[in-house]
Fold:
Amino acid sequence: MTTSAPLKVALLGCGVVGSQVARLLLTQAADLQARIGRPLELVGIAVRDAAKPREGIDPALFTADAEALVRRGDLDLVIELMGGIEPARGLLLAAIGAGASVVTANKALLASDGGTLYAAAEAAGVDLYYEAAVAGAIPIIRPLRESLVGDEVLAVKGIVNGTTNFILDKMHTAGEGFADVLAEAQALGYAEADPTADVEGFDAAAKAALLASLAFHSRVKLDDVDREGITGVSLDDIAAAEQMGCVIKLLADCTLSEDGRIAVGVHPTMVPLSHPLASIPGAYNAVFIESRNAGRLMFMGPGAGGQPTSSAVLGDVVTAARNRVRGASGPGESAYSARGILPADEVRSRYYVALEVSDEPGVLAKVATCFASHGVSLQAVRQDGGAGESRARLGVMTHVAPHGDVCATIAELQQLAEVGAGVSMMRVEDR
Amino acid sequence: MTTSAPLKVALLGCGVVGSQVARLLLTQAADLQARIGRPLELVGIAVRDAAKPREGIDPALFTADAEALVRRGDLDLVIELMGGIEPARGLLLAAIGAGASVVTANKALLASDGGTLYAAAEAAGVDLYYEAAVAGAIPIIRPLRESLVGDEVLAVKGIVNGTTNFILDKMHTAGEGFADVLAEAQALGYAEADPTADVEGFDAAAKAALLASLAFHSRVKLDDVDREGITGVSLDDIAAAEQMGCVIKLLADCTLSEDGRIAVGVHPTMVPLSHPLASIPGAYNAVFIESRNAGRLMFMGPGAGGQPTSSAVLGDVVTAARNRVRGASGPGESAYSARGILPADEVRSRYYVALEVSDEPGVLAKVATCFASHGVSLQAVRQDGGAGESRARLGVMTHVAPHGDVCATIAELQQLAEVGAGVSMMRVEDR
Structure:
């Protein structure tokens, strides 16, 4: 059947991204129609306060009754930009049940219960697209789901949270401490009033779960991600990183282990300046992929903001709408590998360990013996006498070792009378 | 209908990329089946010499009769990796006519007659995918066709030919001339015995045509691309670029002009070191995209070689096969904009102009007057006395100006008695 009847679209949420998407749906209507083959009609926008005016959007479109909107029964597409688990989850399942395809940017929902959404979409024969859920405007979901689907992805490493990248960048360039830079980022609108999701790494961990799921054809959930935020990163860490020719980045690291399990974590990590991820500035995001055949790929671009994110949402909208027009559907969940998750203690990395010791003969030997007794071999040790009063600072770079062995080493080091209490450790990216 | 019958696949061409694709189809069969939902069966490989043995591939698969292979009538997919216009074009049209979807890496064919292939695929309800035609393993076709399809792309600029990037890189780092580095690249296998397609920019121009077509939803052909190779790049140019804080790259530049026409060219271009494209090393490729909403994106990775290219081919194979299993089809041609091509003389750029003048009073004023009389304003002029015997070298950086006006200026400069014959010019990328 050829028809030029409009495809009916509902929008859930009208914040920074939602209002931009709504405006683009209205102002770019002719282009979108030409690209899809049929016009899109925005039939309703669910918001908390339907009376609040939004510039450039017809007030008649707003409704506070999201449930009724998704259950109209005539929707082709539902765009969900409200975030959070509920009511987003229930509304999307209702929309899918009523036969609508779904475009969402909701990484938290996908990382906690994506399997349920995928299964519902599969059963209903509709699409589930979520390019905007990871790395804003950077096309990364589609390349993983489709372009690299004939290859074997070995690792995906990304700077996927712009707020923390901005803060770490500023700590390096301005030499200011975490709390000061965070306050500045909040004043500039780069960080939320409650910055927990960003600075504690929850946002990046949800994205890591999505990236790992797609890369390794397995279901990886938020709880599988070993997560550490940047609140503990000190100016001493920053200085140590610079001494080692590195910068500290909050890295989402999804790597296939030698035994086929998935290592997935989010950690502040020293990245050598020669690595392509080292130079990603400010609020930019970047994702680095290593795969068997394609080799080393990198994607970079703006990681957040209303305009970039709306670009990713609209790309999905056009793709899902085209599928609708052609009676087709996009890729479903690919979780056939069902790989296990490598326990955090078994994940292998290089580490930089900083400790304060008494400056007397034999201490270095004791420290080195302690590492050796846990099977952790050292690549370099650097002693810096300047800790005052017969104290010295040691910086130890290990070879690749399991996290658990490094932790055990540190626990033992802290028992030594010659070692001060504040032993710190940080992962170091390989190249 | 649910079936587990294999999808039948034929391969045309079995060179470096083709043999790698064949091997992966055979060795990765279980993974590919899991990702597609049905097994793939490689039923035949068309080659010139069917008797020649290829390691790891059953000799019974080879045939010299490509025509019979594509006309079997039971093919689901045809992968074309032979290159060139004919017989590839006729074979693909026959395959499409017989109901097969097509995956190809043939940029020359697509850039000269892509419209015919698209129309045939549309009529037959089959897919046409060609991720491997541009920038090897870097997913760039799919992001343009699908991820950015809801945005307005303003410019696509890329280093899309690894051979020329390797040569220019080496000229910069080793200070060796074009001919020497080319000979070296040939010895290393980075350049072909007949390097014309690479060093004269034909390969990059075909890719520019494909990128511009997708970015601007318009049909852009090879002949529309203003093309200049790197054979004229001298060590003087390299030195001048370095003095200006730039490196020379062979840049494929697709830009939407202010009046909505398409400016598309391939030229050696001075790229400021601060630009993300400046640091792309050796045989790597990178594509930089600027779009209305997504902002500035960059994609980088290996641009050629059997393994990376086979990754792109197999990604398309899985996508086309999944569509087959679901009774769906991928995106067709999007050329609704039907934009005009901006004539080369009207394309605007900054330029660096180098000339030799007699070192006497009033010459600089004469030169500056000549630029001004053609409406070309200057950003910087640099005089270097060291040309010997009362001659001086001038390096002139212009503001953005139309190509035709800069050419007219140079033609007039060459008439001046004070100016030597060898006036050279080169585009300079803005930032």
User: Anything to note?
Assistant: Chain B has a mean pLDDT of 93. Chain B has three domains: 7-136+307-326, 141-302, 344-428. Chain B is about 35% helix and 25% strand. Chain B touches chain A through 56 residues (CB under 8 Å).
